[in-house]
Write a structure and sequence with these properties.
By secondary structure, the protein is an alpha+beta fold. The chain is built from 22 helices and 11 strands. Helix 1 crosses helix 6 and helix 7 packs antiparallel against helix 18. It is globular. The relative contact order is 0.12.
């Protein structure tokens, strides 16, 4: 629902009525989603303790970095300049922080970074349940199945692992928007091409949450296109709807997608190295993992001992119950549900180690084969939720029994979180996470691991930052006498000798530029700036003057932002026009 205010007051009344109608139609789903969200997050709510799992610290660092940028007056940061001992980290250009804006604002209001993290987990847990219920309600037209859908989706084993073992905040957010992508597919390829905007919402939000989940959604869409090829290949309406969804999605997310692609092609990053050298076969799933049913705080690498392997399956209910749908009478079968069921099981089987993943290098972008279980979870929620309603049993009874059993099993899977000992209290300051008072900020890495995690977005060949000082050096690495003043991504350099090359204590990303300043501090000339051999910013000083190194937006960054703004304004204009015409 969108509220518009006009001077005559007529549309205001209409919008309020529409809001009331929407709440009347959805309040049960909203209330149910809120209840099971609270149940799902109970370890966060009953204990003053945030477990530090695989990527928890990295996401805390993202929230803090965005909040600090807001304090510096930068509202679309490309670089977090204070990360990694003030050498800077360009993660916002590769991993969108768009949906961390509210947590960052809350952090700046004095709420601890841990509480902000729990807040965002709960928000997207709620949205995951609600959107799953909406998807199920639209497709099945059943009043009871959505409650099972919201529950089984929320408490699926893989999603529990994402939240409480991997701390994969990007995937947790992605879980919320995958049902919207599936709903868009349902409308465009099966029922109503006029509702292609669901594809736009789903794909745009995924692009702004987690790149890999976005890629997974594209894979899902391609599979559905293959399944429905006879239906859409000769349909002008469907092709046009897909084209419009593509153009608008690209327009909305252009401010992030194109700058990311520009940076990726500007130099090699460790992300590219990991993708090209890691073998997908190493992450393939052994069959026994689909029968494991205990949450383990380990790793999902192929060949690990059973007591060290993550719980990498969607859960028994979702793996077994959808099969019942196949026994429905033919006239009661929905083609979309049937196709979702088939694709769901395909995505469930694909991660197994029986497939030659070592030859499927084109899938390298997803990093781990078991990420396909996300698609399994999304595709099977509808057949799993509707399958049991074809029997002569009261639907209310089926719903209550299924939801109680699913919630009970989910709570049991989550319970071990309460026994975790590695973690922080909610009032722990961010500074104590990187100063070594609680945890080694490096733990065997050559960079500040608590802030950079796997350092995916550092340039290949980066130096051992533990051995560097925040000083200007010459081309041989010797410290030179200079005066440095740092403010955000700006670094003012004074008192250096002319006609020499210097290296600055800043990690190089495309966009950094050094300028020569006059006595009044005004820019008088651009100075040759480059990436030094140690991947830091280098420049040639021709004169004995003051120099300024700053991060300037590239033309692609600037114009892609304009594209997104124009797209957003155009959408808003068309919505208002449509409302006025009504």
């Amino acid at each position: 629902p969108v509220m518009y205010v006009y001077y005559n007051g007529y549309l205001l009344g209409t919008s309020v009525d529409n809001m009331k109608l929407w709440l009347k139609q959805n309040y049960k789903y909203l209330l149910f989603s809120l209840i099971i969200t609270i149940i799902f997050a109970y370890p966060f709510l009953i204990k003053d303790f945030l477990p530090l799992e695989h990527d928890t610290l990295f996401h805390l660092s993202r929230i803090e970095g965005l909040a600090q940028s807001f304090k510096d007056g930068v509202f679309l940061p490309r670089i977090y300049p204070y990360k990694n001992m003030n050498f800077g980290y360009g993660s916002p250009m590769f991993y969108s922080d768009f949906f961390l804006i509210i947590p960052a604002l809350l952090y700046n209001l004095g709420i601890s970074v841990s509480v902000c993290y729990v807040f965002i987990i709960m928000v997207f847990t709620f949205l995951s349940s609600y959107f799953a219920m909406k998807l199920c309600r639209v497709v099945t037209n059943n009043n009871y199945a959505p409650y099972i859908a919201g529950t089984v989706y929320l408490f699926s084993n893989y999603r529990i692992t994402d939240v409480y073992v991997r701390s994969s905040l990007g995937e947790v957010m992605g879980f919320a928007f995958l049902p919207l992508v599936l709903l868009g597919i349902y409308y465009v390829l099966y029922t109503d091409t006029k509702k292609w905007y669901y594809l736009v919402i789903g794909f745009t939000c995924l692009a702004l949450t987690h790149n890999i989940t976005f890629i997974l959604a594209c894979i899902l869409f391609i599979f559905f296109l293959i399944v429905r090829i006879k239906h859409w290949i000769h349909s002008k309406e469907i092709i046009i709807a897909i084209f419009k969804a593509f153009i608008v999605s690209v327009g909305c997310s252009a401010f992030f997608i194109f700058p990311m692609l520009e940076q990726m092609t500007s130099q090699n990053f460790y992300l590219s190295y990991y993708t090209s050298t890691s073998s997908l076969a190493d992450s393939s799933v052994e069959l026994w993992k689909y029968f494991a049913n205990t949450t383990v705080f380990g790793y999902g690498t192929h060949g690990y001992a059973k007591d060290m392997s993550m719980l990498l399956n969607p859960g028994y209910f979702m793996m077994i119950i959808p099969i019942v749908y196949l026994f429905r009478k033919k006239e009661n079968k929905n083609p979309f549900i049937l196709h979702s069921l088939i694709l769901g099981y395909i995505f469930l089987l694909l991660p197994l180690d029986i497939f030659p993943w070592e030859y499927m290098v084109f899938f390298g972008l997803i990093q781990f084969t078991w990420r396909l279980i996300m698609l399994t979870t999304c595709c099977l929620i509808i057949p799993a939720s509707i399958a049991l309603f074809d029997f002569k049993i009261k639907p209310l009874l089926i719903t209550i029994v299924c939801c109680v059993l699913l919630i009970g099993e989910g709570v049991w899977h989550i319970y071990p979180v309460l026994t975790r000992t590695t973690g922080i209290n909610y009032d722990t300051s961010y500074a104590s996470l990187i100063d070594g008072s609680i945890i080694d900020p490096f733990y065997s890495a050559f960079y500040v691991r608590v802030e950079l995690a796997g350092a995916d977005y550092l340039p290949e060949g980066s130096p051992d930052y533990r051995e560097l000082s925040n000083e200007v050096t010459d081309s041989l690495g010797n410290s030179v006498s200079s005066s440095l003043t740092r403010e955000g991504t700006n670094l003012l350099i004074e008192n250096i000798k002319p006609n020499q090359s210097y290296i600055l204590p800043i990690t190089y990303y495309l966009g950094y530029q050094v300028y020569a300043l006059d006595a009044q501090g005004e820019i008088i000339d651009k100075v040759p700036t480059y990436k030094a051999n140690n991947t830091l910013v280098g420049f040639n000083a021709n004169d004995a003057t003051t120099y300024l190194c700053r991060y300037d937006e590239t033309p692609i960054q600037k114009y892609s932002l304009y594209v997104s703004l124009v797209t957003g304004i155009t959408i808003l204009f068309l919505l208002i026009k449509k409302k006025m015409n009504r």
